[in-house]
Design brief:
heterodimer, B: 10 strands, 42% helix, 22% strand
């Protein structure tokens, strides 16, 4: 590859942007916007985490101690909405903003001003969502899936939630159009699609999924809004509508959404495993095909969330088979990662630890996923703590662990400084232990018959709930350590080198100095 | 050949032992009390074993690699990056495993869906926050009552010690005879609820304005408890379901008494 003197080109433009608050409000720079996305999602992670602590405190023992049932339902609802739309999704967009231009050899994102707009919509949406706690009637309390007619009953909080979801959806659509355009048009000469890093591939596919399903979500919340205020009866049987139709439309968005939150995580892990194994990714093209198959399959499995809603036998069979089929490409990915590690020359820095933790626990979540796909078993575990355990295994130890892995991996490139490796490892091990203490026991609770979204429970569930709550408090506190590690790295970390990880092969490590210059590649590198 | 069958026998008996240990424990599904619940229980156990074998296989390889292929041990990285044969093998094998899982599940689904020719039919209606029951057909036809949580408020507030059936007890049990096919017609009055009794293997959402159905045949007399399984508002956690299964003659007596008291009540109302 031809060498590019990115630093010379980059630094001369640094002075062109305003400083102070205006820098962040008016910025069109992909790195500034990426940072804002990441900090925003961390703030939301803290808010959603605080709600989770409230939930676990109430469930610490039987009886009602802290949260009255109505407030408890508001906590569970907003915990879900904030974590999905406020924490996990924006964090991945933050990664895309930072990494996609650097990894494909572009100077910035394709639509720089739209990029700014799509970020600044987020604080507005988050304010609407969080302020709904303080309006008469409180926040939405119908679960993050807000099924009508229950959500039709709610107060002003539900309307605020609907507007918030609209704005978040608009932001996501803009973000994904930007990512698609950047990836398809701004790759360095010679970087064909099949030479793109896996992270870029997974985001390209994710962005298409977002563009496909976010309008569906916007549609369904609009229908809910008109049902609530303008006399329509989309979801009201008395007016000729059908509450189950809401579930079909919602989950047509909701299931691809699950993969929107996990595909970029696959991408991050697929960058980290080869770097620290010092060996190329095994089965690159099968990885790409597996990602695409998962995305396509994810659009035809939505009704597996609704096996107890009642549907014809043929419907249940179809959605069961389609859902089980997803295990095949997902399995291919896990086998490929294992084969990448096989006969590598591995070291275990924090990003690698989180990536291995990701694979290990994601597979556990995958197993419980296959078990949930089997209709007869799902009849027992649907809407119980088993399902809670299942999706936290794929979203916390899946998506979140991959995000941590990615932060530790790219932090040296972003800040020019190294994080504290000892503290990073402590963060990993504490997260790993407390995560399992929190969520593994929830499998047992669900099997034994504890429904989800209840503030109080029979005494037979008491001991596992206490264990789970203790784990949750530990997990919550551990994340403050993460905050400290990042701040400490930015302020006083040791200087990082251009290629901090000797096994790294992507452009940001091979062609750009550390820290990465304000404008990544003014002249594109030539990829042979 | 002989040693192979001994190993198989040992494996099967170990499996049976562990499976039976799990029954009734708090680590697993409740002890099944109907044919469908039994099927579900067995399939769940089968899947756990399959998952365990795959888990050991995959992570056995990964952890061997993690231990041996380290830079700190001076291990030099190989440079292979694909193998079509291997990739085809690990695509095909999971497909076969999935087929093995899907086959029994398909049979159970078809059985679960067969609500035809029941011995009796009961309608369950979800309300915020209690259940209503109407015996529509079969012995006890015409019986109708509500079923509400009977746990005293003081227990919820922690002013009294909590009983064994805390939050799982109601004023009026749904009573059914043993060994009879009971079809449950499920609907709701306000929002979506779900009628769920784990031991009988029945969970069905109750959808306002629509009717869904399910069925069970209880294997033996007893009291089986469940809860509403779809978030239905503030007191979602306080609308349990209690099914009491009786011998046929006891059930007949219960139905007679219920009907007599229903007649008395209505006469009493007419007199007033």
């Amino acid at each position: 590859m031809a060498a590019v003197h990115g630093d010379v080109h980059g630094h001369e433009h640094d002075e062109h942007h305003p400083s102070g608050m205006m820098r962040w409000i008016t910025t069109t720079n992909h790195k500034d916007i990426g940072s804002m996305y990441l900090w925003f999602s961390f703030a939301m992670f803290m808010v959603g985490g605080t709600l989770a602590m409230g939930i676990r405190a109430e469930l610490f023992q039987p009886g009602i101690q802290i949260l009255e049932p109505e407030l408890f339902n508001q906590f569970t609802t907003l915990h879900g909405l904030i974590m999905v739309f406020g924490a996990i999704m924006p964090a991945f967009v933050g990664f895309a903003n930072w990494q996609v231009p650097m990894m494909i050899g572009a100077p910035d994102m394709a639509f720089a001003r739209m990029n700014n707009w799509s970020f600044w919509l987020l604080p507005v949406a988050a304010t609407l969502l969080i302020s709904s706690f303080f309006v008469p009637g409180g926040a939405a309390a119908g679960g993050w899936t807000f099924y009508p007619p229950l959500s039709t009953q709610g107060g002003l909080g539900v309307d605020l939630m609907i507007f918030s979801v609209h704005i978040l959806g608009a932001s996501s659509i803009m973000g994904s159009i930007n990512i698609i355009t950047t990836i398809l048009n701004m790759r360095a000469p010679g970087m064909t699609l099949m030479k793109m890093p896996m992270f870029v591939w997974t985001w390209l596919i994710t962005a298409y999924l977002l563009v496909l399903v976010m309008p569906v979500l916007a549609g369904v919340v609009t229908m809910l809004l008109t049902d609530r205020h303008f006399g329509t009866s989309f979801f009201n049987a008395a007016g000729g509508g059908d509450p189950v139709m809401f579930q079909h439309i919602f989950w047509f968005f909701g299931h691809p959404e699950v993969y929107i939150m996990i595909l970029p995580a696959f991408g991050i892990v697929s960058e980290i495993i080869p770097t620290f194994s010092r060996k190329p990714l095994f089965g690159y093209s099968s990885m790409v095909y597996a990602t695409a198959s998962i995305a396509i399959l994810s659009c035809v499995v939505w009704a597996h969330h609704m096996f107890t809603a009642g549907m014809p036998t043929v419907g249940q069979l179809f959605f069961m088979y389609a859902t089980m089929l997803i295990a095949v490409p997902t399995g291919v990915k896990v086998f490929n990662w294992t084969a990448t590690m096989w006969r590598g020359s591995m070291t275990f820095e924090t990003p690698m630890l989180f990536a291995i933790g990701f694979i290990f626990l994601f597979v556990v979540g995958g197993f419980s996923g296959v078990i949930c796909a089997i209709v007869p078993i799902d009849i027992q575990v649907q809407d119980t703590y088993y399902v809670i355990a299942h999706f936290h295994y794929v979203l916390v130890s899946g998506a979140l662990f991959a995000l941590f892995a990615g932060v530790y991996y790219w932090l040296p490139k972003w800040t020019g400084r190294m994080y504290n490796e000892t503290l990073g490892k402590a963060h990993f091990w504490l997260s790993m232990i407390f995560f399992n203490v929190t969520f593994f026991v929830q499998h047992f609770l669900g099997l034994a018959g504890m429904p989800r979204r209840i503030p109080d429970y029979n005494i037979q569930f008491a001991d596992f709930n206490m264990v789970s709550s203790i784990g949750a408090f530990g997990f919550g506190l551990t994340q403050l350590l993460f905050f400290y590690i990042v701040i400490n790295c930015i302020r006083s970390g040791e200087k990082a080198s251009q290629k901090q990880w000797d096994g790294a092969t992507t452009l940001e490590w091979t062609h750009l100095p550390t820290p990465a210059p304000y404008h990544s590649f003014e002249k594109p590198p030539i990829i042979k | 050949m002989r040693s192979k069958s001994v190993v198989t026998l040992a494996g099967v008996s170990a499996l049976a032992l562990y499976s039976s240990m799990a029954i009734g424990s708090k680590y697993n599904l409740p002890e099944p009390q109907s044919i469908i619940a039994k099927d579900i229980y067995d399939q769940h156990m089968m899947l756990l074993w399959i998952c365990l074998v795959i888990f050991i296989g995959v992570f056995g390889v990964m952890f061997y690699s993690l231990l041996k292929h380290r830079k700190s041990l001076g291990y030099k990285a190989a440079n292979f990056h694909h193998s079509t044969t291997v990739e085809i093998i690990w695509t095909v094998i999971p497909c076969i495993i999935l087929l093995l899982m899907a086959w029994p599940a398909t049979k159970t689904i078809i059985a679960m869906k067969d609500t035809s020719s029941p011995d009796m039919t009961i309608k369950a209606t979800g309300y915020q926050w209690m259940w209503g029951y109407d015996y529509l057909q079969g012995e006890g036809e015409g019986i109708s009552f509500f079923s509400k949580l009977s746990t005293p408020r003081a227990q919820i507030d922690g002013k009294e010690p909590r009983g064994e059936n805390y939050l799982l007890e109601v004023d009026n049990h749904v009573v059914v005879p043993v060994g009879k096919k009971v079809r449950i017609i499920i609907t709701a009055n306000d929002v979506i609820h779900a009628w769920w009794v784990p031991a009988l293997g029945v969970k069905q959402d109750a959808i306002p304005g629509f009717i869904r159905d399910s069925w069970f045949t209880a294997d033996k007399p007893g009291i089986y408890r469940g809860q509403c399984a779809e978030l239905c508002g503030k007191d979602h956690g306080y609308m349990p379901i209690v099914v009491e299964v009786m011998e046929a003659d006891e059930y007949s007596k219960w139905a007679e008494a219920r009907k007599a008291s229903a007649v008395k009540t209505s006469m009493h109302i007419e007199k007033q």
